[in-house]
Design a protein that fits this description.
Layout: E1 3-7, H1 15-23, E2 28-31, E3 40-44, E4 47-51, E5 64-67, E6 72-73, H2 75-87, E7 97-100, E8 104-105, H3 108-121, H4 133-142, H5 154-174, H6 182-196, E9 200-201, H7 203-212, E10 217-220, H8 244-249, E11 260-266, E12 269-271, H9 282-290, E13 304-306, E14 308-309, H10 310-320, E15 324-328, E16 338-347, E17 350-352, H11 359-364, E18 366-373, H12 390-403, E19 407-411, E20 419-421
Parallel strand pairs: 1-10, 1-11, 2-5, 2-10, 5-7, 6-8, 7-9, 11-15, 14-16, 15-19
Antiparallel strand pairs: 3-4, 12-13, 16-17, 16-18, 19-20
Helix pairs in contact: 2-6, 3-4, 3-5, 5-6
The protein binds guanosine-5'-diphosphate (GDP), 6-O-phosphoryl inosine monophosphate and magnesium ion (MG).
6-O-phosphoryl inosine monophosphate (IMO) is lined by residues 7, 10-12, 37-40, 126-129, 131, 133-134, 222-224, 227, 238-239, 272-273.
Length: 424
């Protein structure tokens, strides 16, 4: 049984926790896109881990984790992450962490270009993580990128690095940025390459052989479907296909090998960075921030918050092919007297079933809500469906009906154990 776990909203839905929960019964966990713009939180055995590039399955011993060909990888960032995880007692070896030789390399100059582009946009900025993700994917599409295979041979690495640094610096200068020192980059990337070299492999046959042998593979999506470069709130998106299809191209696994597609969603909605957010609501934002919740795992930024959006989730379920939803952070609504779910977008007196293409129109949409009663009770210690208050169960069921996809698990807290299977 091969399962894909995809963020269904704008990222930070709790994919790390869901992956961790499912890894117990998996053999392989693979990432197919994104880079260290991702921050996946797992709380296990009383410890908190934040994974950026390393698949969240690494916390379980004996599982093979793969960073797939579709990922953009910052070598120094990955080395830091590996060292940090080792310091937390996590074992990482070439046997349990493999990196695709086709994955593209994020250089310091890509981060600088990302920052310079954002600065140039001023109040129109996308609000990127400034991790060089967009510029690296741009290099990939322009066919001028460096790949992990280029890190294998130190001499070759030196040649390609020098060549790419020259043109990238010219680009950076055109944007008004200060050129990156090639020597500093060469030294940092060479050092990281020495450490990462034993992990680099052609992961495409590895993952396909595992599937052929009947092993269970878990695909860990990064970001969320509404940040997808094709389906999201373009241009306020990331630069990869974050939806289910992106996982296949990003790992080299054919779509007919996927048995189950889980959409992870929060019981409400959050977003980091700029762009349309129809159900954004200052009251729920103040309430969640007041509880110390909804601060970003990667940048620490306060996340924008709003009510659940069934228009967005229904659309997301459609183009991702979700077979089920894993709802997280249901406990975040514990103190709400009443809870809203958006069932339609109103634009110029018309009700839209799907989000519009034009960003100005998306921004202008007004939410049409249904309102449900809250449960006003702490549910974080509940462990079974039957223990949850009636209004809480009604909310979960209605949520699934409105998006046209059943919710099969709910999260009532950040710990591994705080996951409940939804009953009848
Ligand atoms: P990801 O990027 O999708 O893996 O999500 P993040 O880790 O960026 O953000 C999700 C946040 O919600 C983290 O702080 C998690 O520890 C937390 N979380 C996940 N599920 C639950 C839940 O059911 N309840 C609570 N209270 N927190 C949760
Ligand atoms: P995880 O995997 C939330 C957002 C950024 C910005 C936009 C583009 O933890 O869910 P980028 O740096 O990718 O060019 O930024 O995408 N973004 C995320 N938001 N969670 C993430 O990852 C994100 N990765 C990128 O905030 O709006
Ligand atoms: Mg995150």
């Amino acid at each position: 049984m091969n399962t894909l776990v995809i963020g269904s909203q704008w990222g930070d839905e709790g994919k790390g926790k869901v992956i961790d929960f499912l890894t117990e019964t998996a053999d392989v966990v693979a990432r197919g896109q994104g880079g260290n713009n991702a921050g996946h939180t797992v709380i296990a055995n009383g410890k908190k881990y934040i994974l950026h590039l390393v698949p969240s399955g690494i916390l379980w011993p004996g599982k093979l984790c793969i960073i797939g060909n579709g990922v953009v990888l910052d070598p120094t960032g990955l080395v830091e992450e590996i060292e940090g995880l080792r310091a937390q007692g996590v074992s990482i070896t070439p046997e349990n962490l493999m990196i695709s030789d086709r994955a593209h390399v994020v250089l310091p100059v890509h981060r600088d270009i990302d920052g310079a582009q954002e600065d140039a946009l001023g109040d129109q900025a996308i609000g990127t993580t400034r991790r060089g993700i967009g510029p690296t994917y741009a290099d990939k599409a322009r066919r001028i990128g460096l790949r992990m295979a280029d890190l294998r041979d130190p001499e070759r690495l030196l040649t390609v690095l020098k060549r790419r640094m020259k043109t990238a610096n010219e680009e950076l200068e055109r944007l008004g940025g200060k050129p990156a020192d090639p020597e500093v980059t060469i030294s940092a990337v060479t050092k990281a390459a020495d450490i990462l070299r034993p992990h680099i492999a052609n992961t495409i046959p590895v993952i396909n052989k595992a599937i052929k042998e009947g092993k269970t593979v878990l695909f860990e999506g990064a970001q969320g479907a509404m940040l997808d470069i094709d389906f999201g709130t373009y241009p306020f998106v990331t630069s990869s296909n974050t939806s289910s299809a992106g996982c296949c191209t990003g790992t080299g696994v054919a779509p007919n090998k996927i048995d189950r597609i889980i959409g992870v969603c929060k019981a409400y909605t959050t977003r980091v960075g700029a762009g349309p957010f129809v159900t954004e609501d200052a009251e729920i934002a103040d309430y969640l921030h007041g509880l110390g919740r909804e601060f970003g795992a990667t940048t620490g930024r306060a996340r924008r918050c709003g009510w659940a959006d069934a228009v967005l989730l229904g659309y997301s379920a459609m183009f991702n092919g979700f077979s089920e939803m894993a709802m997280t952070n249901l406990d975040g609504l514990d103190e709400c007297d009443s809870i809203k779910i958006c069932t339609g977008y109103e634009l110029d007196g018309e009700i839209l079933e799907y989000p519009p293409a034009l960003i100005e129109e998306w921004e202008a949409c007004k939410p049409v809500y249904v309102e449900l009663p809250g449960w006003n009770q702490d549910i974080s210690s509940c462990r079974t469906w039957d223990e949850l208050p009636a209004n809480c169960k009604a909310y979960v069921k209605r949520f699934g009906e409105l998006i046209g996809c059943p919710v099969t698990t709910v999260g009532v807290g950040p710990d591994r154990e705080q996951t409940i299977f939804v009953g009848a």
